[in-house]
Queue: 2 jobs
Job 1
Amino acid sequence: MGTLQLYPAPLEVEANAVALRREIVDAKLRAMLATAALPPAAPGLDDLRLAEPLASGDDELGKLDELFAATERAMNAVTEKLLPAPLLAARRVNLALDHVQAGATLTDVMRAVPSELCWAGDFDRVLFSRVEESSWVPATWYTTDPGSAATVAFGQLVHGSRFTLSNGSIEAEIVRRRVTALVTDAAEETRTFPPLLSVAECQSYIVAPVVSGEAVVGLLHADAAASGRRLAEADRVTLRAFADGVGLILERMALVEALAKQRHLIADALAAAERAVAAIADAPVSLAPRPPEPIATSHRAEEPLAHDGLTAREREVFALLVSGATNAAIADRLTVSETTVKSHVKHILRKMHVGNRAEAIAKYLRDGNNLGVSR
Amino acid sequence: MSVDLAPPRTAVFAPTARPGRSRVSGHHRSRAVELTGLVSEALSVRAEDLMPGTPQLEVTPDRVATLARSCVSEARADAETDAARARDLYLLALDLQVLALDLQQEELVLRNRRLGECADSLARLRGIPNSQDLVDAVCQELVSRCDFGRATISRVDQGMWLPRKAYFAAADASWFDDWIDQAIPLHGHTPEARLLTERRPALVLDTTTAPVHRDIIVESGQSQSYVVAPLISRGTVVGFFHCDHFPTQRRASDVDRDVLGAFAEGLARLHERLVLMERIDAQRAEVGSVLENAVRSLPEALGAVPRPREITPARLRVLAELTAREVEVLDLVVGGATNRAIASRLVIAEDTVKSHVKQILRKLGVTNRAQAIARAAGTAPD
């Protein structure tokens, strides 16, 4: 690990002991500032930059005391300004999302997203784009530096544009992998989008996907070019949390809308039913022609027959019996002997628990057509 | 590498948190032990008195900075009399400060990482399709991914706190079952009661001195220190998360509070969205069942409606040909009655019935009763 070699052997007596420690402290403070990635102009950060020593060249103890005191002050500044920064950013992200969610329409939300993100994440410029099929279309953007030439050029580039999600571009990779990317050295990065980069004039930027439902519906680009701040891992965490929140807000909007729409559809359907019912009740009495018979559907024949216990042959006999046919007529019709018909009739009467064929017909009429015989 | 991509959301779901692990890297800890030894030598103080409990207790930047200050106050006193010793003490103090800066840097990175893991957790939970499963899964996620030892979720209903679900990393959770859905009245100045109005996450540093719900927090839960965050839906506190580092001695911190707070806000969004989805389905199911019930209950609700006795065209033809008495007899024949039964029913002689039946058969142009019935009922071919 690199930190090991920065520790000198304790209590050594070399001549530049103070200067060496000064360098180490300075390097650690720089590293911490880079990690926290606060705007350079943020208040209370002066103590994190070591001032030139005041003590004269040969007053080594004076220099040591000065460096100790300066480091103490720096550590206090770290405790008060740097360590709370990620927590405050997380808090601001949630407040910003609450503001975005307060928007009544999709347009309100689209408009609120860039400015709220600038505030929450200390960014200078945020671009919110729609993702449509294989391209991304800038929709809304916000900058803290509205008057500059760079802003004007940037506005001209994104206004009304549609960029292709070309293979190998960072944007395409983000849409595909659904991850948030931090580009820390844009000039060296081959996957960046050249026209946007040359106009945007930023060293580092972050791109996050906005996922709603199953799909990536938007992209958020953020940078801090105007203040010259270099973005760090902390910024990616912030942007990622915000982008996830925006996705949820878009989903929520769609659901609220669907719920209201469904409610209206139900109300409309009920009102239509009410109107139809009223129309039937209020219709004038007239000598209407008989409506056409509904065409018999084939599935009727396939309906399971009531469990009457009759065999297929008995059912045939019964159908004729119901029509008033005599045993002789039934025998003739089915080309069987009259004795066979008598035997069938006997079984039918027994299965129907009736004494004679008149009763059988009567029962059939009472119970309706549930004996597998069409009326 | 200039492009830094976070791991995909489909990351393997595996618990990584080891309860009780030190949050300070081994390298820094051994450096702290080494420097403490040097300080104890230089100041002639026992190392245990300089950093009580080290290394069992956490090495913190504050503890290390305090050691550095002890060295410097000794060095300042020595500056006039023993410049060489003063110089050694100053250099030792600076080495301690460098270690303290390293610890601060480590803490800063750790905070970013915890917030990042919090966002990862929420992204994973986004895939859960219904609100009940979400509530059931969320505590384990908090413990496994967000660096807590225990997590519980409770609902709040009309000023009552109702524990709902818990997940403990390395401790027996059976006591919690007795508390599930037990209504705990929220009053006084407990953090949970204040949460209802303040709606901000809270940190309880020491449960022995703070006004807490002793029964569940201290007696059952044995929590020394914890954080609690509200679940807010449409401006109302509808639930709580409680987290601590049990069974380790680690106290809850303001970082724990803010991480849990951020998590709770994200979860509230996830939850509300699932509730909306479920409402759409419920609305649809409700209107279906209401209409179905209405149609089914109409005949009962209306009671008897005057309806004419149904008459078929076949019967109409029969009626046109028969006398009133013959119709009466035919109806009984259709009902399956014998001549004797008809005679007794109509209080006439059986011979009279026979005569009526003969007339009926003649008028209908049929030869037996069965045919007559079939003709009267319309089952006979025309």
Job 2
Amino acid sequence: MQPAYSVIFFTSASGMGYGLLILLGVLAPAEMIPDDRTFGLVSLGIALGAVTFGLVSSMWHLGHPERVLLAYTQWRSSWLSREGVLATVTYAPAGLFAIGWIGIGEVVGFWGVCGLAAAVLAGFTVYSTGMIYASLRPIPAWCNRWVVPVYLSLALFTGALWLNAIRLLFGHPAADASLVVVATLLLSVSLKWAYWRYLDGARAGSTPETATGLGSIGKVRLLDPPRTQTTYVTQEMGYRVARRHAAKLRRYASVLLFALPFVLTLATVATHPWIAAGAAVAAALSGSVGVVVERWLFFAEAKHVVTLYHGAEAA
Amino acid sequence: MTSLPREPGPKKLGLVIDLDTCVGCHACAVSCKEWNTGGVAAPLTDLDPYGADPVGVWFNRVHAYEAGDGMGGRTVHFPRSCLHCDEPACVSVCPTGASYKREDDGIVLVDEDLCIGCKLCSWACPYGAREYDGDAGVMKKCTLCIDRIYNENLPEPERVPACVTACPTSARHFGDLGDPDSPVSRLVAERGGRDLMPELGYRPVNKYLPPRPTRGGTDSAERGADPLPPEPESGGGRFLRWLDATLSR
């Protein structure tokens, strides 16, 4: 699949934003993170800013962005529509939570419930993002049980990296927050590696024989494509550039997304506070670049069954 | 509404494509382009049409495949267009209601005024039936020529999709596949019509009739490479006859 930059930035940025919002919405009412108002302003600002930047960037690739309100109408059938509805609805409790925390300085009681509601809705939003991909049967690399858990865990993990960075910049002790980073990192790395193992071992369900119905005659090969140049379908669905470099890109993604943030997060525990904060910020930046590479690869590695009509032997 | 019709009507209009008689002339594809570039989905935009790298919207494209090997092998011409599926995921993924499946006849259409051009429907289609028009910013697809088949200004025999009228070998048949007694349904039953990628569960309405088995490929195979026919015993002129006789002594 052709990687759509707007969608990659959208899922990476809004994933991180929602992950951070979930952690803030749960940890602040539980009084597990400091409740001072500047900290609330910065952390909620980054979370909602990333979410908003992501949502806006997702509209870049639309042919008619001015009609975007129509996308709220089909939530009964479409995961994309559900994602849009949930993303918008999440702003309500998140906004109240922000008013409580930043404006009034309260994160418990009613304001805490708003935080929890925002966390739950943010979780469902990321879940619908994953389901958009997981429900596409023509793309076996997406339509499997690993995709939604990977989206959810990476949202939490990248959110936790930024929470850690903000906490250390505010000079808060880091040990338990680093624990959240390490736990979500281990979860993400296991799920992502399981996904890659699944992808490498998956057998093609569709073949040129099932695509053409000519399997009873024998093996089917493309003799003449139905075009002299590329078409929308071959450009969008037949993208092959990254598949050739998949192994290398997986290593880059693993290093940037998992290995470096892991080492840097360990480095935050026992050193000078400013070095600790620097390490945590570096970990968050590395993880954020890593998740963009991971998302790009998620598109580029995915094969669409329509390529079977254009000469692919498996999809 | 992109939810599928809760109670789909009995009528399922579609095409039956005979892969035995299709000669791959592309008349259906060209005729489709010609009709539809002036029809409801008009224009079927071409970008850089006379340049080095033209790209444009077509609803119907003709592939050619080789199937099998040796004497049992076949070259099969294979027109591919929207199959107007019973389970069109292209419709249910649409966030805006632009894509819909008609209750009355099962035709899958795009309302271009509602389309935001997110392209998700084209990802959801296993058959490559939807082509995005980058110029208009909307998705386009086969309409089964709704502006022909119900068009009372056309003489009755012409109220079929443009691809069907254009086919010189009658390899394309149009009709109601929801009615088991319709000519197209009987054709599918007689010839063992097939679904494309049935394993994905889209339940296409259009069917493909497989090529008929070749007439015993074995005699020609046994003959192998034909030697030149033997020289006739007689004939070949007086001189050659004399030469032959002389040399045979």
